[in-house]
Amino acid sequence: MKQVSTVCARDCYDTCSLKVTLGESEQILSIKGDPMNPITQGFTCSRGAKDHNRLYKNRVKDPFLRKGERFEKAIWEEGLDAVSQKLGETIEKYGPESVLHLNYAGNMGLLTTVFPKRLWNNIGAT
Ligand code: SF4
Predict the structure, then answer these.
(1) Residue extent(s) of CATH 3.30.200.210 domains in the chain
(2) Largest CB tally within 10 Å, which of 33, 84, 113, 125?
(3) In the CATH scheme, what is the code of domain 2-55?
């Protein structure tokens, strides 16, 4: 086992510092708040502390492309190309404002609020 220092990826305003314990094959065994952070002082919410329980199951790890009535597993380049192609076709046919950027309202730290907007602003999306 080993322990690594990191931060929660959710980008809440407090950005909790974490101590993550890894097992033999680097799987996460536990997540605890890091008491050395002067702001969060060892705090982690119950969602952050249980992230590893959701990490290894029910995850979509590959893109899937619709082939008729079915979805078939693809490689990332194919998946990204398909999204890029559809987005380009939509913009060309209906204009950039036909693309609607839906922003979520969960954890809204600086990174998650601003970072994706660069792409959508550049495209001219609604
Ligand atoms: S409050 Fe929870 S979700 Fe937010 S940064 Fe801390 S551990 Fe992550």
Answers:
(1) 2-55
(2) 33
(3) 3.30.200.210
Ligand 1: residues with CB < 6 A are: 8, 10, 12, 14-16, 44-45, 47-48, 107
Q: What is the pTM of this model?
A: 0.64
* Per-residue 3-state assignment (H helix, E strand, C coil) for the chain: CEEEEEECCCCCCCCCEEEEEECCCCCEEEEEECCCCCCCCCCCCHHHHCHHHHHCCCCCCCCEEEECCEEEECCHHHHHHHHHHHHHHHHHHHCHHHCCCCCCCCCCCHHHHHCCHHHHHHHCCC
pLDDT in tens, 28-45: 999 999 999 999 999 999
Mutation to probe ligand 1, out of 11, 16, 41, 51 (largest number of atoms < 8 A from CB): 16
Read off the pLDDT of residues 101-124 as tens digits, 9 standing for 90 and up: 887 666 666 667 777 788 889 999
